Amino acid sequence: MGERTIRIALLGIGTVGTGVYKLIRRRRDVMMRTAGANIEIARILVHSLNKERPGIDRELLTDDFDEILEDPSIELVVEVMGGIEPAKTMILKALNAGKNVVSANKDLIAVHGRELFEAAENNGCDFMFEAAVGGAIPIIRPMKQCLAANEITEVMGIMNGTTNFILTKMSEENMSFEDALAIATELGYAEADPTADIEGLDAGRKAAILACLAFHSRVTFDDVYIEGITKISKEDIAYARELGNVIKLVGRAKNTEEGIEAGVYPLMIPKDHPLAEIRNSFNAIYVYGDALDEAMFMGRGAGEMPTASAVCGDIIDVARNIMHGCCGRISCTCYRQLPVKESGKVSNKFFIRMKVKNLPGVLAKVATVFGLHKVSISQVIQKYSGGDCAELAIVTEPVREYHMRDALSLMNAIEEVKEICSVIRQF
Ligand code: NAP
Ligand code: HSE
Fold first, then answer.
1. Ligand 1 mean position to 248 CA, how many Å?
2. Which atom of ligand 2 lies nearest, measured to the CA of 165?
């Protein structure tokens, strides 16, 4: 019997697509032996046919998606172009034409996941997306398969490499946010427009995807409370250190009796927590389950070859399913419809830093406002900042977010409170 060849098409050959192209060529022999088929890139969709693409076979390029869609010999479409449209329409058309799909597109999956999974299921196709969260880190497949027997109660992780790099530089080299961002940009971690990273949107998309997998209920990007790292200052980093913590941008999803909590925000984490050890551009995801107890998955969350590693893992998996005639075996696992908790109802400990007038009775006024709003104080540090000004750093016990918001808006009305400089959640 002759060798079986599985023909695939890449939609896009930018950072990730180039990595996939290289890895498929580099590992051809191993893929053949482990998947049982030769994997051949038959077509590559690009935006611009004229762009220089060193090392890429120009014969494979096309700017016409229909050439891919209408080619019955193409069994798998690998979407690595990004964005919502035209990626969404192309993926749906591919699935409806009976082609399997692998995608790295968290922006799309976090918003339109349900529609994509339904199309895959209706057509008996695979839709795989391991690279959409955590780059090279295996987390989608472990959640869907290896940990499938668990009741997952919480997922918490460092899901964005750019912000972790910035916070590491601020924490270990005493850099300002602006200087650390400039280095992240120079090293190619941050995009030309870093908004999605530093404002927490990228991590928010990943948190939404993980929440769906963890709790078997649809959580979309809009359900995730999001705060980025742009307001974190050197002073906050120094206080975190003084309190035995480090600040990390964390994505969290928790299943509670009142509904799913989903958020991304800077969090002070005790420095002996495993996530505190995750430095530079590394990502890590911590999972709590009733049978597994706790597990942490750590690795490179982005970049050409790390992301290609995850995409190619999916490609090999699809190839195996094609060889065994069992595509579409693991479809959408969201069988529940749990409510998502309003962010105001979530309880957290807080660290608050404020500048106040250094006068008798000011601390008592601040404490009274907190007390009126059910905020219990666990620690107070007062530092003299010069002139008639003192700096208060206050750590609270867990309190519902809406109580904290009410307390802070009343606090702003106290004449002796000059500025509320920071409000950061604490683990
Ligand atoms: P990229 O470097 O910007 O590459 C995008 C590619 O898609 C380019 O080849 C571009 O064509 C092509 N493309 C874009 N729009 C197109 C259109 N309308 N028609 C045809 N081709 C189009 O992006 P990337 O960094 O590789 O990211 C790709 C996906 O992987 C995104 O969903 C991203 O979120 C995800 N991801 C990326 C990373 C990472 O480290 N970069 C990590 C995890 C996940 P031209 O070359 O002609 O411009
Ligand atoms: N921009 C992301 C990060 C990588 O910095 O982690 C793509 O998901």
1. 27
2. 5
Q: What CATH class is the domain 346-426?
A: alpha beta
State both tokens at 193: 């427009």
What are the helix and strand counts (H, E) for the chain?
14, 17
Q: In CATH, what number does 140-300 get?
A: 3.30.360.10
Fold match between domain 5-135+304-323 and domain 140-300 = no
Tokens encoding 99 = 């082609």
Distance 98 CA to ligand 2 centre (A): 31
Residue of 69, 81, 209 to test ligand 1 pocket, by largest number of atoms within 8 Å of CB: 81
Q: Is 302 in the pocket of ligand 2 (CB under 6 A)?
A: yes
Q: In the CATH scheme, what is the code of domain 5-135+304-323?
A: 3.40.50.720
Q: What is the DSSP string of 70-106?
A: T-TTEEEEEE-S-SSTTHHHHHHHHHHTT-EEEE--H
Known catalytic residues are 206
- Distance from the CA of 75 to the center of ligand 1, in angstroms? 21
Contacts of 308 (CB under 8 A, 6+ apart): 16, 18, 19, 20, 22, 23
Q: Tell me the domain boundaries of the chain.
A: 5-135+304-323, 140-300, 346-426
Q: List the chain pLDDT tens, one digit each, 427 residues.
A: 568 999 999 999 999 999 999 999 999 999 999 999 999 999 999 999 999 999 999 999 999 999 999 999 999 999 999 999 999 999 999 999 999 999 999 999 999 999 999 999 999 999 999 999 999 999 999 999 999 999 999 999 999 999 999 999 999 999 999 999 999 999 878 777 999 999 999 999 999 999 999 999 999 999 999 999 999 999 999 999 999 999 999 999 999 999 999 999 999 999 999 999 999 999 999 999 999 999 999 999 999 999 999 999 999 999 999 999 999 999 899 999 999 999 999 999 999 999 999 999 999 999 999 999 999 999 999 998 778 999 999 999 999 999 999 999 999 999 999 999 999 999 9
